[in-house]
Amino acid sequence: MSTYTIVFNRGQTNNIVTTNFSTTPLNASSTLTLTFPVQFTITSGIVCTYQLNSTGTFLNNACTLNNNQIVFSNIFANNSIIRSVTVIIANVLNPFPAGRTSPFTGTIGNDVAAVNGANGINSFVTIIPGLCTSSFTFNDNIVSSN
């Protein structure tokens, strides 16, 4: 199982342009959603934590799962200004076979971070199989016995 860290930056676009979302307050009913590409297997065993505005403090969240979409609820106070949110999702099963995935997408309130085209290159993951070493030890009293 793998752990993924995703950073939502509401303060600027991929072209380093300041957005209105960095000064637009959220209400308490706003949610954060993160949709993993269809190649991933996301199960109810995931563990979700989050950090608001790069405070250094990660909080646990009982996120909800709907297919490959993870929803964080009740994480914003009324009229809160959120420039960034970092989420960590643990216990994710990587795709098989290895290869490039579809893009990740996400939202914070009505701020949609749908990624596509050349600017979306960082939202893809390329899974490369790791080297595996196996060894076998035989017990002389068992090998070739009846």
Task: Please give a structural write-up.
The protein is mostly beta strands and 146 residues long. It has a single domain (2-127), classed as Sandwich (Immunoglobulin-like). Helices cover 0% and strands 32% of the residues. The chain has no helices and 11 strands. A 5-stranded antiparallel sheet has the order 5-6-2-9-10, with no helix packed on it. A 4-stranded antiparallel sheet has the order 1-7-3-4, with no helix packed on it. A two-stranded antiparallel ribbon has the order 8-11. The model is unreliable at 114-121 (pLDDT under 50).
Topology as a string of helices (H) and strands (E): EEEEEEEEEEE
Oligomeric composition of the shown chains: single chain
How many discrete structural domains? 1
CATH topology: Immunoglobulin-like
* Secondary-structure-derived class: mainly beta
CATH C-level category? Mainly Beta
Terminal residue distance? 40 Å
Helix content: under 10%
Low-confidence stretches: 114-121
Number of strands: 11
Most strands sheet: 5 strands, antiparallel
The shape, in one word, is globular
Mean pLDDT rating: 77
Strand order, biggest sheet? 5-6-2-9-10
User: What integer value in Å does the Rg equal?
Assistant: 20 Å
